Amino acid sequence: MTTTTPRAPAQQPWEPALSVRQVLGLERVRAGQPEVVAGAHRLDRPVRWVHVAEAADVGVMLSGGEMVLTTGVLLAGDEDGQGEYIRSLDRAEAAAVVLGLGRAFPAPPEVMRSAAERCGLPMVVLHRPFPFAELTEEVQSRLLRRKFAAVSLSEAVRTELTGLITAGAPVQRLLDEVARHAGCPVVVTNLAHRVLATAGERAAVDDVLRDWERIARQAGAGSADGWVRAELTCRGEGWGRLVLCGYRGERAAGRLLADRAAEALVLHRMLAGDGTQPGVPAGSRESWDSWEEQSARSLLTDLVSGAVPARQLLPRARAAGLPVNRRVFVPLVVREREPARPARVLRRLGLPGLAARLADDHVAVLLSLAPDQDARALTAHFATRLRAEPDNSHAVVAAADARADWTDVPAGLREAQHVADAVADSPAAALDLPPVVRLRDIHLRGLVRLLRDDPHVQSFAERELDGLLRGPDQDLLPVLRTYLATGRNKSRTAQLHHVSRPALYRRLEAIQGRLGVDLDDFEQAASVHIALLAHDAQQG
């Protein structure tokens, strides 16, 4: 006769389960003095359900994951049947078999034990009489409680993340919430294992990223303990993965949490992609920024700001796919209206590096080159190709000298940013700038830019330019700026402002009268020029 406990539906990937080891550790089970006689190396197999059966063909009734309880009364004296019984359980992918010793088998049957050992099926014998009903009741109630808790967690996480998306929260806010629930670092990667985003305690995240390439391969192969992975798929096409790194809770709950987080990230990406996300207007940068660009932007912003020591950012750079071992780094800042363009040029040229927007029209670029590569030639090649893009001939590429030490990269980026800012308000044609602008190319303009916040410089600029700044003819200031930038070239100034030379002379006379200076005098013209550079730097 066969007694069957209530059957659960087919197991879902996240459905809670107990391991064979956990079942054997239950107080009620220990009262039966369990002994593992075969398959001891497989005790971590999940138990989805408990099945009490005395039928010799019980294997056909199983769907996998069951712990089968039997006294073997119908198998006594039939060694062929005993061996087939074990093999049928293995074919049905049973979790384990528990044999109650008694009249049928006063000692563990060697045929069953040997067959179970060959199959790798955990076989447990109970040395003391034990009511199977108590075991089934205990295990089933625990499984049901876990399942209820898992469903509750599923709904709570889904509701919370959906609420954040509806409120227009950035993706980092979602990941922070997932990390809070998981109690471990959360990493989002593309299909090539490059890290796109992270969340969790900073020190723990850095530990994970420090050896990310090796750990990611282990996690992908399912060999990393506590690592739970969920695929990110949009419209049937995979684009990344979310990984809970070192999750210490129940694996079923971890899988559920990862799946819910993946659903939220895919939804966030879909809404951001078409500009329908609340608070994110269509066509805004937030709607089209790629995950790769956001990851690079976060890293480069931290490098420029100096808020995080460069050495601590090294694992993030390596995990983002930037070569960092035995490399030379070239910091650049590009004045570019389309922030995605420098990254595209890098890819086309096959140059390893990162590119991301720092401000509305400033893009930071960090090249990573081999020591034997010509950094200056490659930087010039990048600048030339960038300016060859449609409607991009006036892009300004500012560079610092190459850095062989990673810790010098932040200073290099800030230098490149300073150079880019120094030429921000002057057309490249007027200044006759080289393809790649460096600190020595900006001369006085760079010095004034550095001193722009000094109260003495501010006062000097206001005093020197007072007659123009207070006057009604504000169009005189641009004429003065062009006249001084072109080296007091009257013909060039007239050409750039589309006026005749006599008209220009009248404007220059008006400027000199307002300021009380003689622009033909070198010292007076230089004083006005410095004041104008300071004024423009302060306004910029």
Distance between the termini: 89 Å
Number of alpha- plus pi-helical segments: 22
Structural class of the secondary structure composition?
alpha/beta
Largest sheet, in brief, is:
5 strands, mixed
- Rg, please? 36 Å
Which features characterize this protein?
540 residues; alpha/beta; five-stranded mixed sheet; 49% helix
Structural commentary:
With about 550 residues, this protein is of the alpha/beta class. Helix content is about 50%, strand content about 15%. It contains 22 helices and 16 strands. The strands form four sheets. Strands 2-7-6-5-4 form a five-stranded mixed β-sheet. Strand 5 (about 65-70), helix 3 (about 80-90) and strand 6 (about 95-100) form a beta-alpha-beta unit. The protein starts with 17 loop residues before the first strand and ends with a helix.
Q: What topology does this entry show?
A:
Elements (H helix, E strand, L loop, with lengths): L17 E2 H5 L2 H4 L3 E5 L7 E2 L1 E4 L13 E5 L8 H13 L4 E5 L9 H10 L3 E4 L5 H35 L4 H12 L3 E4 L5 E5 L2 H9 L1 H9 L7 E7 L2 E8 L6 H24 L10 H4 L2 H15 L4 H10 L8 E8 L4 H10 L3 E7 L2 E8 L5 H13 L8 E4 L9 H14 L5 H4 L4 E2 L5 H8 L4 H15 L6 H10 L4 H8 L3 H15 L6 H18 L1
Helix pairs in contact: 3-4, 5-6, 5-9, 6-9, 7-12, 11-12, 15-17, 17-22, 18-22, 19-21, 20-21
Summarize this, please?
This protein is α/β, with parallel strands linked by helices. The protein contains 22 helices and 16 strands.
